[in-house]
Write a structure and sequence with these properties.
By secondary structure, the chain is mainly beta. The chain has five helices and nine strands; from the N terminus they run βαααββαβαβββββ. Strand 2 and strand 3 form a beta hairpin.
């Protein structure tokens, strides 16, 4: 029988990418607001000259395209601590109704962390970076699998820890990685953008 698993709750999208020092300085000196640039709040056909205060050679991404600045990390999913699971049978009847990940782990499911990115460890002293996050609520992913019945002990959650934000990024069932059906449906509640510079203590 073919079952369907939906993961929903609170979570979002996060990117981390390197930026040039010149871009960092422009944002930190207050010449341009990083939120306005990343979210593209002030950019329109009549306001291009002001936005072009970021010379093209220093731009890590075009205004509003923050999700493209992701050479260090780019993940999307429900937070592990706020992720819930519903399982449907082939007739769309609910087999498991809005059970959180930790409860399924208590029932035999497991968690595998496949990725861990920490800015201070990934970058060298003096490196500059951009961090962008969208905080969302809704359905993040759906998967299908075949079995005679749903067995939580066969379920493995794949997670990523991106600078301390733990997200569910995939699922294994019976040791087979399932393909996301692409039925994500979330509402963005908030976005946060920042630039930073790595400062490590002398050893």
């Amino acid at each position: 029988m073919k079952f369907k698993i939906e993961i929903f709750g609170r979570g979002g999208e996060i990117v981390i990418g390197r930026v040039k020092r010149e871009f960092y300085d422009l944002m930190e000196n207050g010449d341009i607001d990083i939120y306005d640039y990343a979210a593209n709040t002030d950019y329109d056909e009549d306001n291009q000259e002001e936005e072009l205060n970021v010379p093209e050679e220093f731009r890590p991404f075009e205004p509003g395209m923050w999700h493209e600045c992701d050479d260090l990390a780019h993940e999307c999913g429900a937070e592990v601590i706020n992720a819930f699971v519903t399982v449907y049978d082939p007739f769309d009847a609910v087999v498991v109704d809005s059970v959180d990940v930790n409860e399924l782990v208590n029932q035999g499911a497991s968690i595998i962390e496949e990725e861990r990115i920490n800015i201070d460890r990934a970058l060298a002293d003096g490196d500059t970076y951009f961090l962008g996050q969208s905080f969302e609520k809704g359905s993040f992913s759906c998967y299908e699998f075949e079995d005679n019945e749903f067995d939580p002990a066969k379920l493995t959650f794949i997670t990523a820890d991106i600078n301390g934000w733990e997200l569910v990024t995939g699922i294994l069932y019976n040791e087979v990685e399932l393909e996301d059906l692409g039925e994500m449906s979330t509402t963005c509640k908030e976005t946060e953008f920042s630039v930073g510079i790595v400062e490590k203590d002398d050893e």
